[in-house]
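Re: weekly structure request thread

Next one in the queue (623 aa):
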Amino acid sequence: MKYEDYIRTKSEIAEAVGFDATELHPDLFGFQRDIVRWALRRGRAAIFADCGMGKTLMQLEWARRVCERTGGRALLLCPLAVAEQTVAEAKRFGIDAEYSRDGKFSSRIVVTNYERRDRFRVADFAALVLDESSILKSYDGRTRTEIIELAQFVDYRLACTATPAPNDHMELGNHAQFCGIMSREEMLASFFVHDTSGGTNAWRLKGHAVEPFWKWVASWAVCIRKPSDIGHSDAGFDLPSLNIIDRVLGVDHSSAADGMLFRMQALSLSELRTESKRTLPFRVDATAELVNGSDEPWIVWCHTNAEADALAKAIPDAVEIRGSDKADDKARAMLAFSAGSIRVLVTKPSIAGFGMNWQHCARVAFVGLTHSYEQFYQAVRRCWRFGQERPVDVHVMVAETEQSVLRSIQSKQRAADEMAREMTSAMRETSIENVKGATMMRDEYETSMATGDGYELHLGDCVDVFRERLDDSLDMMVFSPPFASLFTYSNSSRDMGNCSSDGDFRTHFGFLVDELYRTLAPSRICAVHCMNLRTSKARDGNIGIRDFRGDIIRLFTEKGFIYHSEVTIWKDPVVSMQRTKAHGLLYKTLCKDSSKSRQGMPDYLVVFRKPGDDVPVSTGGER
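Done, posted below.
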């Protein structure tokens, strides 16, 4: 492959695979019609539309049109109890859909729960729809990976959710991978930098890549919080007020630690767990007083079985849903609350926090908080959504010693709001009609050169710059290559750090090694600074070390160089631990399981030599 052809493959366009649809369901609003038509044209897309904006009808109409076009069937995966709601919605709009628990069906559109996906052969369907697709983050990595892998056998794919994993850009990678745009790893390599100061799995959106990133997202996903985000009227889609009432409860300070006048703020996870047990009676009593003094429907969110048990005893007409209940019993209770036959529902956000439409309820209580903003957000949006006609009051019960969690949720809420603003702003700037494809990365290639007394400085692609040099014209080379995708310095497809895999880096770097060999004079040396790389569970499935130094040696020797010598450069493991937070260097790893502790990682200066005998420089020669 020529170098120019290879660079073009790194900027490949993920072409639309869908079709144009002219006639759509007459009950769709104008903005819904535009979104469905766009998603059908793309064939593989994501709809990030805020709660209550009609995602159910949009995904049903999308599935119906795909079935008509292909003659196949569509499988729609939903959270628990949402399947019945979806089928009821389909019936209301005259769309043929059925709920299947056992893998048997007769309709074109088949609706089931995520938990029952193993009863269906996904490859037998022409279309796959993920309802509340951000719920995949709540599942274990194996399940999430399985669903994404199964999707690769389906031509038409649609992911629908309100806000994809609020405050977590990484979750967008799962959606991109599901839609067949690029993998999560490719997204990280293209737009993010490994932020070593934040820990082993911390990634930060590169400053110069902010605008390209959101434009890239907008090319395969629609993100709207209200119809005006894509140029439509907001009439009928004005949300009532949301009143979040933080109720900070006093505690008994007589049990303060020795030498302390007051009980201190709980900060660590273990401290919060201990404090949560101590303050449970205060939080439950305050919640019960509110709920029992009202005849309104209430949702009371808790996070532990102990909280649920105490709430069920303190609120006489409460019905509790817990994880150990049978799936059908859970669904029955959720639907009964929807119908109004249950006044007070007590459950956890992890059980019922996704997908349900409970606009009839405008009173919500959290008997406590965790650090998960996504669970808090989704739980609130069960009631505060388009279609809600009354102001929604959300009461948050926290003890004064647990305010660190409250501050954490408030901080994450501000960050999530900013993320939503960025996404919708990018969508406004990127026309929804631009659905021909989604690009991995785009860049403007600029070159320049500066010269002085005994030096030349080149701005440009190093492969192109070396191709301009004469054979055997350089006497020595010293450099440090990108360490695969550990750090990426630009969003350019010519940046070797912008690689989707180790094989991709090896291919790109190999073009440079060929030029290094050609331009280096015989018997002269090329010194390469490098280090071995850490692996991570998120990317590699394990925590260990990858022999990057060995990869470089093997590549250079394959290209014809002689492995000449090397220098090992010692590095302080304590300094490295403080900078990178590497798991194997942490003191807590030594205490928890010392077999996982390791030595610090050195740097290397690996020296290669080009075969042949040295030839003296000719007068006037380029060397």
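The CA atoms of residues 104 and 120 lie 9 Å apart. The chain has 20 helices and 25 strands.
Next request, please.
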